[in-house]
Amino acid sequence: LSRSYVVGDRWSDIRLGKHGGCIASVLIENERYAEEAARHQAEGEATFSARDLWTATQWIGEHYAQTQRR
Predict the structure, then answer these.
(1) What is the pLDDT along the chain (70 residues), one digit of tens a residue?
(2) How far apart are CA 34 and CA 60, in angstroms?
């Protein structure tokens, strides 16, 4: 898990990534959970918030590339 990214649309997914020791947790924005998402986003639980899966995968690719350059 330490070399993994978690992508999910619920905060239970994001918590799994954070507490599981993943590199990053990416939230796919979901209108149903917008209020809960805003609260948890403010608490810094998600590393990134994406509007859709495509945006999430693009961010993961960029984030991974940056970590490899260090």
Answers:
(1) 788 999 988 888 888 888 899 988 888 877 776 677 667 667 777 888 888 899 999 999 999 998 888 6
(2) 22
